[in-house]
Amino acid sequence: KPVKVNDSAFMFKIIRASFNQRRKTLQNGLYNSSELRIPKEKTVAALEEMGLTPTIRGEKLSLEEFAKLSNILDRTYRVSIITAQTPYKEFLPTLPEFMQELSDAFSLPG
User: Is the whole model's pTM more than 0.85, yes or no?
Assistant: First the structure.
């Protein structure tokens, strides 16, 4: 069945990072990923919000759980990921859309 995810490309990066290294916990996989570099404490907080143990491995998550994890990380930590990895020239054309997303996410006045 289809899952509800805010950004499927981001979710697939999380899934790919979860399986890139054998026998790694999810927090280590997301931290060691050159695409993401999500700090371990951020992943742990998201997993705890989902009611999952911080030592869980990627193969234990369902597609629905990956979607939920992606949405949590997108909502709470994506700003630092986008700004750290997006070249300045690529970021500028999307600034109005990004500001709208921030406004929507944090209920800020437009």
Answer: no
